[in-house]
């Protein structure tokens, strides 16, 4: 399974491949220019805080107008690319020669939970009848809205289809001809046999149904917990909670649970989300 956790990178890389067929996509598209790699140049992280105002959203169903509209990086001359940028070309190599056409995009619709369009810094959503497990689709949209707040004025106009289910659905074997036109579909995971384009997992921003807070908050809690109890003083138990029905490996894992005949120092809990 492949994962990438920088949304700005994923949306930027997708927009580059829309360039070749821009005339059949949203008019007047604005694209981010390709990044240039510069060796031996330091990059200082910039932490931005533009929290979403949920109360304002509940009243108007729109985001407040008080958010900034421009982004000023700490080091504007820095154009260093992380090493993992090379995987951008690998993920999108299937559309390298043809670009992404409107026809390809629309073929993704039958798999998608929603269509997302960014135009002039605003997000537009078209939801489909396909059921999204719990609030995965909502948290995914939240992540992109948050991205717009972190990098105001930097996201290009674009249009994507998104499937919030777990398993990839675009098999590579069906699109090996040069003119096969595979549908570009974003989802949380993919593999070497599939063409689904990976996107950060929705739980990065929290998982309300399981009382899991955003990863940033969880990391802070974990660090505080580590200070209260040293590893050498902890009880050696393995803990896991999840749905064992989606994987043979998970089913095998449940065999290690504690019973009246065995105790392998494991605490395994089944949680189904259907």
UniProtKB/TrEMBL annotation:
Residues 154-274 form the Glycosyl transferase CAP10 domain. Coiled coil: none annotated. It holds the Pfam family Glyco_transf_90. SMART domains: CAP10 (SM00672). PANTHER family: GLYCOSYLTRANSFERASE, KDEL LYS-ASP-GLU-LEU CONTAINING - RELATED. This is Glycosyl transferase CAP10 domain-containing protein. It comes from Solanum chilense (Tomato). The lineage of its organism: Eukaryota, Viridiplantae, Streptophyta, Embryophyta, Tracheophyta.
């Amino acid at each position: 399974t492949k994962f990438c956790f920088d949304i700005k990178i994923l949306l930027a890389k997708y927009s580059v491949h829309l360039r070749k067929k821009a005339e059949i996509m949203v008019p007047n598209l604005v694209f981010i220019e390709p990044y240039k790699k510069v060796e031996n140049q330091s990059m200082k992280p910039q932490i931005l805080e533009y929290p979403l105002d949920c109360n304002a959203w509940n009243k108007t169903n729109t985001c407040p107008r008080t958010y900034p509209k421009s982004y000023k990086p700490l080091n504007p001359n820095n154009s260093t690319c992380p090493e993992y940028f090379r995987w951008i070309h690998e993920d999108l190599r299937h559309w390298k020669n043809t670009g992404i056409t409107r026809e390809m995009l629309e073929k993704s619709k039958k798999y998608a939970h929603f269509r997302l369009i960014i135009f002039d810094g605003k997000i537009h959503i078209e939801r489909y009848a396909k059921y999204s497990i719990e609030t995965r689709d909502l948290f995914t949209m939240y992540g992109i809205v948050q991205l717009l707040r972190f990098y105001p004025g930097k996201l290009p106009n674009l249009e994507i289809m998104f499937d919030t289910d777990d398993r990839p659905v675009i098999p590579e074997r069906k699109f090996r001809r040069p003119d096969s036109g595979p549908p570009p579909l974003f989802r949380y995971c993919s593999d070497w046999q599939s063409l689904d384009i990976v996107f950060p997992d929705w739980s990065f921003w929290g998982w309300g149904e399981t009382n899991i807070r955003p990863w940033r908050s969880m990391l802070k809690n974990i660090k505080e917990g580590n200070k209260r109890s040293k590893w050498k003083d902890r009880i050696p138990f393995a803990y896991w909670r999840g749905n064992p029905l989606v994987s043979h490996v998970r089913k095998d894992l449940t065999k290690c649970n504690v019973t009246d005949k065995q105790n392998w120092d494991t605490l395994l809990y089944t949680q189904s989300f259907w």
